[in-house]
Amino acid sequence: MPVRVLCLHGQGVNSAVFQKQTESLRAMLPVDYEFHFFDGKYECESAEEVRDHYPPPYLTWYNTPTVEKVKDAHEQIRQIIKTHGPFDAVMGFSQGAAVAASLLLHEELESTPLSFKAAIFIGSPIPFAKAAQVGIDARAYFGIRNTLPNAHARPNRIPPHLVTDPAYLRNPAQLERASCDDVQYQMFHPTVDEVRIRLPTGHVMGMQDKWFCHSKDLVGLCQENSKVVLQHHGGHEVPRAYTEEICDVVETVFGGLL
């Protein structure tokens, strides 16, 4: 039986771009692996690295990770699984990886059946939650006043090494709601959350990536004895120069699925 892999693109690209990004990787992997690519449903500005090379639409699973929009992203993935699944594994890049990690963390929290048996996270930011009961209250970092404290007394300071550039405020229109008390941002983090992704995971991260520290901390949200980590010298990409090494990660993580 083939291993069916759900593939989730990053923000500001689309499924066709993610297919191109993983072309050399997929060509080197066993034919038993079937990769299925799908689009996020919202349009957004293009990622800088693809603007001059790939045509629109430029898509996203959410334009800013509020609890409501993360919940909606989970529903997008569940609908894909319902319509086109089941899938044995998930492979996500950037925002797509964060959405997959968030979904799996919530499934662990809710003790519901896991959507996948294995996961590959490439260049992933730390995932955000769909509920205010978990994670770090990150409203202040998104320009949202937190005059009303988090109802669940969650911490409200993000570790400094995770505070990146204005990518946090990529959607300036969100700032129009800065006075709204119902907007919540909750960032999962291993220092404040006990939940862990327990299935086999692979982590690919570039040391020149602005999300490098996020990717390292995502490793901490995964069970210790079931993860494989590859650090490379590149940036925010699926690096062709490390295709063989990434293949080793994928085959190690997916090995038990065949």
Q: Which descriptors would you attach to this protein?
A:
258 residues; alpha/beta; Rossmann fold; 6-stranded parallel beta sheet; two-stranded antiparallel sheet; 26% helix; globular; hydrolase activity; LovG; AB_hydrolase_fold
How is this structure best described in words?
The protein has 258 residues and is α/β, with parallel strands linked by helices. The protein has one domain: Rossmann fold, CATH 3.40.50.1820. The chain is built from 6 helices and 10 strands. The chain has a 6-stranded parallel β-sheet, with helices on both faces. The longest helix is centred in the first third of the chain and has 18 residues. It is globular, with a radius of gyration of 17 Å. The mean pLDDT is 92. Pfam families: FSH1. Keywords: Hydrolase. InterPro entries: AB_hydrolase_fold (IPR029058), FSH-like_dom (IPR005645), LovG (IPR050593). One of its GO terms (molecular function) is hydrolase activity. This is Serine hydrolase domain-containing protein.
